From TrEMBL:
Matches recorded under InterPro entries: Beta-prop_CAF1B_HIR1, PTHR15271, WD40/YVTN_repeat-like_dom_sf, WD40_G-protein_beta-like, WD40_repeat_CS, WD40_repeat_dom_sf, WD40_rpt
One family name in Pfam for this protein: Beta-prop_CAF1B_HIR1
Domain CAF1B/HIR1 beta-propeller per the UniProt entry, residue ranges: 4-386
A single GO BP: DNA replication-dependent chromatin assembly
Species of provenance: Kingdonia uniflora
Keywords: Chromatin regulator, DNA damage, DNA recombination, DNA repair, Nucleus, Repeat, Transcription, Transcription regulation, WD repeat
Biased composition (Basic and acidic residues): 426-436
SUPFAM superfamilies: WD40 repeat-like
Gene3D superfamilies cross-referenced by the UniProt entry: YVTN repeat-like/Quinoprotein amine dehydrogenase
Subcellular localization: Nucleus
Name the record gives this protein: CAF-1 p60 homolog
WD repeats, residue ranges: 16-40, 60-101, 108-149, 150-181
GO cellular component: CAF-1 complex; nucleus
Keyword ATP-binding on entry: no
């Protein structure tokens, strides 16, 4: 594992708000406050312990305002970009005499204000977008029209994620709620048409009591309010749809305790339960992943499925395979896998300004991080460093043979997590007044030789 902040002119020193890897070619798309989308070729650095390199390829110029989110379609043939002012553009890859070029295919118009997040459906036929106008919109990409408007939120919608199995859509808003929409298909003109309705509104949970008294319980908000210093709350489903991880958490262990910045994990089994109307407001996360002193703003899963290592029996996830996912706070990055009860790596102090987005390459070789300071961090993994890959046919066979619900073991007391395997720190806080970052200094410390300064303790919530 090696990497660092790449010192190149990414977007004329303007904030970089989003990035995504192409699923086939591995090219990286970045976008931000300079209104352009730029395409980069990422290559490993031949020098030992040096970060990968990014080589500029071309720019996609059409937007007239800051671009907040870019996402390639599953096939890689199209690219969706959402920007301020409600702009939402579909780009299509064309073959030309000079090679391949991205051209504007459609402009999707309906959002009245900034588009902050979006995601494609698994088949690439639909797109769901989240906006400052308090709504999510499901788009029929082929028709270029609105399929359905989800307008339940009362504040900015800053994150949206489509269940890979197509049954749920999850959205996260500055109104301190996470809404789970379920597909209740309708029959129109003899055809089945998808129709999403809100099944859960997750906003509060009961705090633990100091004693065993059965008096009135205290409920606390699970998520930060609109004062969260970020445009984004990018949540994500696991690749098999077995659980959802939501950022922007603010968890209270006790009614009188301070809030802890967190990401929450929700089991599909819990979301699929038939609940009465009173239960909608108290649907609780199964697991809480505490961060350090900054809010969690984004979650992204590695698209590769890994085989179990069988070396850790203390894991809280009971799956026949292993996922790896990244959790980004405003100033740090945690990498987890589903076989461990603690992060496998922590990166801190890589940027002067807030982190905005995360992206994995389709082969799990690279993990990219964007920031408002105008730079990106690239992390490169060695072959099999994250584990042994399960090839697609094998993965599908294993997934088909098990339930799509994750089993989470809830211990009798909080799990005392081991130190992360790798801690990589580049402390820029002491030098934050400089206008340009210096080349990244990375210190890698094995947990067995030197303990981490702060323990990260996942909590199973009863």
């Amino acid at each position: 594992m090696r990497g660092g902040t790449i010192q190149i002119n990414w977007h004329e020193t303007k904030p970089i708000l989003t990035l995504d890897f192409h699923p086939q070619s591995g090219l990286l798309a970045t976008a931000g406050a300079d209104f352009d989308i730029k395409i980069w070729l990422i290559s490993p650095c031949e020098a030992q312990k040096k970060a990968p390199t990014a080589t500029y390829q071309n720019s996609l110029s059409y937007h007239g305002s800051a671009v907040n989110v870019v996402r390639f379609s599953p096939s890689g043939e199209q690219l969706a970009s959402g920007a301020d002012g409600g702009e939402l553009i579909i780009w299509k890859l064309h073959s030309t005499e000079a090679g391949q070029a991205w051209k504007v295919l459609k402009s999707l118009s309906f959002h009245r204000k900034d588009v902050l997040d979006l995601q494609w459906s698994t088949d690439g036929a639909y797109l769901v977008s989240a906006s400052v106008d308090n709504s999510c919109i499901i788009w029929d990409v082929n028709k270029g029209s609105v399929h359905q408007i989800l307008d339940g939120h009362l504040h900015y919608v800053q994150g949206v994620s489509w269940d890979p199995l197509g049954h749920y859509i999850a959205s996260l808003s500055a109104d301190r709620t996470c809404r789970i929409y379920v597909n209740k298909a309708q029959i129109k003109k003899g055809l089945e048409v998808m129709n999403y309705i809100c099944q859960h509104v997750i906003n509060k949970a009961e705090c633990q009591q100091l004693d065993d008294s059965k008096g009135s319980s205290t409920k606390a908000h699970l998520f930060h309010d609109e004062t969260l210093p970020s445009f984004f709350r990018r949540l994500a489903w696991s690749p098999d749809g077995s659980f959802l991880v939501a950022p922007a958490g603010s968890y209270k262990f006790l009614p009188t305790s301070d809030s802890v910045n967190s990401a929450y994990l929700f089991s599909r089994k819990d979301l699929s339960s038939i609940l009465d109307s009173d239960s909608l407001l108290i649907c609780r996360p199964a697991l809480q992943l505490p961060a350090a002193n900054k809010s969690v703003v984004a979650v992204r899963f590695c698209p590769i499925v890994f085989s179990l290592r069988g070396s850790n029996s203390a894991g809280l996830f009971k799956l026949p395979y292993r996922f790896v996912f990244a959790v980004a706070t405003l100033n740090s990055l945690y990498i987890y896998d589903t076989e461990s009860s603690s992060p496998i790596a922590v990166f801190a102090g890589l940027h002067y300004a807030a982190v905005t987005d995360i992206a994995w390459s389709s082969n799990a070789k690279y993990l990219a991080l964007s920031s408002q300071d105008g730079y990106c961090t690239l992390i490169e993994f060695e072959s099999n460093e994250l584990g042994s890959l399960i090839h697609v046919p094998d993965a599908k066979k294993e997934m088909d043979g098990v339930s799509t619900t994750v089993m989470i073991e809830k211990p009798d007391k909080p799990v005392e997590a081991a130190n992360p395997a790798v801690v990589i720190i580049d402390d820029r806080s002491k030098d934050a007044e400089r206008k340009q970052p210096s080349p990244t200094s990375i210190i890698s410390t094995s947990a067995s030789n030197k303990p981490a300064k702060r323990r990260i303790t996942p909590m199973a919530i009863d």
